[in-house]
Amino acid sequence: MLLSLALLAGCGDDKKDKSKSAPAAETAVPPKPKTTLQAAADELSASLSSDAECEELLERMVPYSLRGSTVKVGDPPSPELCKGTKPVLGQLEGFKPTKAQEYGPVGVVEGSGENVSKGNVLATTWVVDQDGEWRLLSAGDFDPQIGVKPLPATNFDEIADQYIEAARKGDCGTMWKLYDPYSRFVVATKNDEVKYCNTISESYRKPDSALHDLASDPSPKAEKLGETLDYGFYAVPMSSGRYWVLVTTTRSEGEIPPELAKGHPGKVNVGEYATLKSP
Length: 279
Known about the structure:
The structure is a single chain. The protein has helices at residues 37-49, 54-57, 79-84, 86-91, 156-169, 172-178, 184-188, 193-204, 210-216, 258-261; strands at residues 96-103, 106-112, 121-128, 134-142, 223-227, 231-237, 243-250, 268-277. It is α+β, with helices and mostly antiparallel strands. The strands form 2 sheets. A 4-stranded antiparallel beta sheet has the order 1-2-3-4, with helices on one face. A 4-stranded antiparallel beta sheet has the order 5-6-7-8, covered by helices on one side. A hairpin with an 8-residue loop joins strand 2 and strand 3 (121-128). Helix 5 (156-169) runs antiparallel to helix 6 and helix 5 (156-169) crosses helix 9. The longest helix is centred in the middle third of the chain and has 14 residues, at 156-169.
């Protein structure tokens, strides 16, 4: 099961800094990391093992653009956010990082965990957040990922391109179909497509939202950053100066609850996206 936070507020409403003019497309670059991914994962592991308070744990979890439209860099985590991370903490119980691989502003960390199946790893995905800190994006029980190529039929590129085109056009039906059943979008709405589409329709109308930026971009492209057996990572630099990342993932091998699986038939899906740099 992938980490899924009930944070629909973070579906695209992260704010622009209106005091600055939007840079040209070629300057839409991600923030530089302040440390290595391995060091960040070790910090999270240490915090988890010490029963740290929510604020300390969130130093290495949940990128700012997923925390809600009014959240600014440096804001402390809300009680709602802390409550939403509790299921994730169960997934991360006993997390001990063993390998890390960076692909620019994204990366994968493998480790052991108390709830991991025999022969598998606790695979976690990370991004370099808006303040330059590595933060956890997802976690799950997977086959080893680092150094393992996707199976030949894994169409990460196709799914990423389809999603970006659908999001640019505001084609919510296609976006919804492409989501992984365990994505935050599906889990947060209890697989309610109408609720999700109503929510993002508001985002498209806001000129300072990520989805509005994407829809206004003349030619957004998903640029591959890297891939593993079950993950495909993409950058989406926009003409406004916003820098997005998109994560595709293969469908879970375990039994997916019917209430989440309905309407999401793909073997490869969109798991998450996040804004790493705002205009």
